[in-house]
Predict the structure.
Amino acid sequence: MASGVKPRVKVPKKAAAGETITIKTLISHKMESGQRKNDDGSIIPRSIINRFTADFNGQNIIDITLEPAISTNPYFQFDSLVPEAGEFTFKWYDDDGSVYEESKSITVG
Amino acid sequence: MNTTKKLTSALAIVAAAGLTTAAWADPDDDNLVINEEIEIVTETAAPAHMENVDTIYSGWRFRSDETQAVQMDDFDNPAMIFVEAAAEAWNAADGSEGKSCSSCHNDVESLKGVRAVYPKWNEAAGEVRTLEAQINDCRETRMGAEKWKYTGGSMAAMVGLISSVSRGMPVNVAIDGPAQSTWEKGKEIYYTRFGQLELSCANCHEDSYGMMIRADHLSQGQINGFPTYRLKNTKLNTVHARFKGCVRDTRAETFKPGSPEFVALELYVASRGNGLSVEGPSVRN
Amino acid sequence: MELTRRNMLVISSGTALTAALGALPAFASMTDDEIAKITGGADTAEGAITLTAPEIAENGNTVPIEVAAPGATMVALFADGNPTPKVATIKFGPLNPTNAASTRIRLAGTQNVVAIAQMEDGTFQKASANVKVTIGGCGG
């Protein structure tokens, strides 16, 4: 696991059934592009988050393939329907094989 | 050729649009409220000691709408990643005394207001201390821990954490009494031309704020928003690291971060922002 | 035909796109190659999706962009002046009500950001935005 990686998610705690809510996600990650060079001229190897997914109760909301052109500390904002109470699960896939997960529950009423 | 003509006029339109947008002059009129809660004073009457400026503006007012927006919500503000890390460091014991920051100061909220009055005269030490110097004094004297690098990541993050609880409070550094001679020394540095380019702080940040220096929109060089997350290096930057960058850009040998010269300059520059809100950790380009 | 800024404008105008690709495939840019991989050379229409990006970015390291693609199943984002043009591919799931997303991207210089969307009916939509990336006077 790359060091200092920490996912953060902002989801409302409560919504009306069928409501559209906005979700924000941010994960601390260098997103080393593979384009930069060390002082000695050698290429710093690519090390990025290459995929991000968000699901709710097993149904997909968004599935993003990231390239090195995504900025340091990848940030995404998107909307989701909330058909019922349940749990959001978020996953970030690192080039090094690590998968970082975060989940948030939401109530309806 | 017809296509060529069309393209040329299209290019002219693009160029004209670019010029209109690039013709920034004064700070914009935007209003800064963080988290829809913390109201930030980004414009106010200059403190009495400033002879050549009537109104002072936060650097936030000189940035583009996109950059401004990043600071308006703590979730969007990447500086908060570092602040969160500092909150963990706050509670982590370090050094021979087995103490953490919280051992003496409890919650970081207990330091609310501290950022607003630093740099500040320290009677026991007989000198003006920056927040960074005070943190290192705590680490060495009370915790028995190693000093942090003055402009390093741990230091910038801790100053960011301590600043964050004072956001919205007016900067109010004391410039009289025992601090006066340091303040005067800082003022002298501010107006002294340095480097091969023979530029003083005042040449850019007092005489020319609002103008473009190449593609940069010059601000007043206020430091009420420090530490600041810069888009260019995607990390928190300390005041002295920024001073160093500025002086280097005049093609001068710079003073060292933490040096008496930069401490004096920080006190003086901070005093030019007396009345603006503490804004750190801010977001700049 | 060299790949000049002027020609890039030709290529990026919707009607000229297929003409340029059809006539001179050997000179197509890397971005056009990537787009062709998605569309299989099919026409791209404009107007159904929107791409929002700043006219001028204060720093190319962190440029906020937003794509809104109602009726799309997938949007691919490209930056035609980057060393590698691919930026991200966004697939919208069944729970996504707006098919919109915001993120922050890196741009190596002034260039076009291009969004290609695959719509539910299999057709393709395109939107692009020119972003000027400034090079600051003060390295600090």
Remarks:
- Chain C has one domain: 5-133.
- Chain C has three helices and nine strands.
